[in-house]
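Practice problem: Protein GrpE
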Amino acid sequence: MEEKRELEQDEVLEEVKDEETTEEVVEEVEDTTEEVVEESDEEDTLSMVRKLKDEKKKLDNELNTLKDRLMRLSAEYDNFRKRTSKEKEGIYTDACVDVLKELVPVLDNLERAISVDGNVEDLKKGIEMTIKGFKTSLEKLGVEEIDTTSGFDPNFHQAIQVVEDENLKTNDVAQVYQKGYKRGEKLIRVSMVTVAK
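Answer key — structure tokens:
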């Protein structure tokens, strides 16, 4: 019986040893697995870091390219703005010169009229010729007198007085105090008129 007990004890001891060995093996496997996982994680991390560095380099290059384009566009726009401003000034100057070329001869005629000795009739005739020359200059510049024969138009006429006149229809222009002018559809000055009611 004692032998039987010893045998049983030996078996139990062996089982305990086996369990201890199993635990040791499990621990060793776990340690090895952790090392492998750690090594794998390090490789993955390094790979990810490389990828991120490459992507950062690519984005930096793209950013620098866009910055360069922006600076070039900004410089081009600034040059365009300066050039446009100069052209505008040039156009305005050219327009003034064109107008003045037409008006200077009228000034010459007025100066001649003052310097000439003569009677009132000659002076009147000279002024009429100067007015005719001035009107010709305005026509060359495309300026025309605003028509008052077709009745009162608030877009082109300013009524300074309203009168009753049996000979005129309602809204007819009875009298022009100051002529108005326009160039094309652009109004230069309204006509000041008396309107019939």
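Discussion: Residues 69 and 90 are 31 Å apart (CA to CA). Students who identified this feature from the tokens alone can consider the problem solved.
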